[in-house]
Amino acid sequence: MGKSNAKRLREKLAREGYRNPEANRSPFALTDMRSRRTKTKKDHLYQHKHKNHSFNYKNDGSFLFI
Question: Under a CB-based contact definition with an 8 Å cutoff, are residues 10 and 19 in contact?
Fold first, then answer.
């Protein structure tokens, strides 16, 4: 891909000794400000779709061989 005209102009200003306009940007311009958190115990408990269906009930993988 080619360079944009704005990027060419910024590089030209930096080459000529002027201040680069990228340095004027806020430090928060490129940061992701959305807050993220891990799920709590209550979030995990309410996540189950089929609450009354315990698929692992009495099924721990063991068996009795006589």
Answer: no
Using the CB atoms, write b or e for 44-59: b if 16+ within 10 Å.
Answer: eeeeeeeeeeeeeeee
14-32 pLDDT per residue, tens: 999 998 888 888 888 888 8
CA-CA distance, 34 to 21, in Å (whole number)? 26
pLDDT tens digit string along 43-62?
887 777 666 666 565 655 66
Q: What is the pTM of this model?
A: 0.40
Q: What is the DSSP letter of 20?
A: P
